[in-house]
Amino acid sequence: MTAIDLGLPGLGGLDGVPTADQPQKAKDYKSDQEVRWCPGCGDYVVLNAVQSFLPTLGLKRENIVFVSGIGCSSRFPYYMNTYGMHSIHGRAPAIATGLAVARPDLSVWVVTGDGDALSIGGNHLIHTLRRNVNLKILLFNNRIYGLTKGQYSPTSEEGKVTKSTPFGSLDHPFNPVSLALGAEATFVGRAVDSDRAGLTSVLRQAAEHRGSALVEIYQNCPIFNDGAFDVLKDADSAARRIINVVDGEPITFGGGELAVVRDGFGLTVAKTADVAPEDVVVHDASDLNLAFALSRLSTQDLQHTVTGVFRNVARTTYDDAARAQVAQAREAKTPDLAKLLHGNDTWTVAG
């Protein structure tokens, strides 16, 4: 099988072999396994969205791999008719990194949850992002541990009453987007499971990105945290809460009645009629400081929630650099192993 030359312009992050002569459909990405999530789980929507847009990428299924950790979301690879691996708790990014470095012909995806990624897997996540490994990371955030039956997670809001915090959580939660931007991820996005169009748009842009792409997906857990994001799904309240950003466009929402404006070094929300048009912030996905300020507009109570692509920039990927280094070492004709072992930098230890 011949891999695409990754140096060709315009390919972005779409590694693999095009299949323009063999069009695929969503059903081609559905495995023969029974989907076993709870009725009403947001994971169903994400699965359907991924299965629907993957055929449009021009890749063969055997050139796509899904790697997951542990959790409800981590059953994802079973339901995809691609290669996949259900790996170790929190370690999916590490395993996927090895795969991305060794197999440049593959499009590698990581599926994880807020507990898997941000608790035991926190270090693996941030180092993958800072290294800019060519991976697409889907972080399903339901603000609870679902598989282990309802303990609070690293994204549960302060005061959250759960089985492990009967008097309310004392922890201040992570903001996954802020965390990813702090690690200087080259692509960071957010979507809500119920917004199929918005979710598909962010996923597509992540797929086209070459480098680490993290997409946080607000996802409902109907058993242990039902209705956590209902205010973002009700048409009346969502319009005044969801701030969807598009690169190059002024940031307005609420039917244009509200706008995002500068407030010192940060951002705030104002009525559009009360500010000059030039004071409305225009989104720039290459501006790290703006992306971080936008991430801080998203509050625990969901009064304001920014969705869309926060950051999208190009930077050398870890896997490309690693392969180039190996090639350079080979060209330099490094001394063979025996000479290295018996050279001047060896010594004998008395028994």
UniProtKB/TrEMBL annotation:
Domain spans labelled Thiamine pyrophosphate enzyme TPP-binding: 70-217
Keyword Oxidoreductase: yes
Gene: korB
PANTHER family per the UniProt record, alphabetical: 2-OXOGLUTARATE OXIDOREDUCTASE SUBUNIT KORB, 2-OXOGLUTARATE OXIDOREDUCTASE SUBUNIT KORB-RELATED
Name of this chain's protein: 2-oxoglutarate ferredoxin oxidoreductase subunit beta
A GO molecular-function descriptor: magnesium ion binding
InterPro entries per record: 2-oxoacid:Fd_oxidoreductase (IPR051457), THDP-binding (IPR029061), TPP_enzyme_TPP-bd (IPR011766)
Annotated keywords: Oxidoreductase
Domain of life: Bacteria
Gene Ontology biological-process entries: cellular respiration
Species of provenance: Saccharothrix coeruleofusca
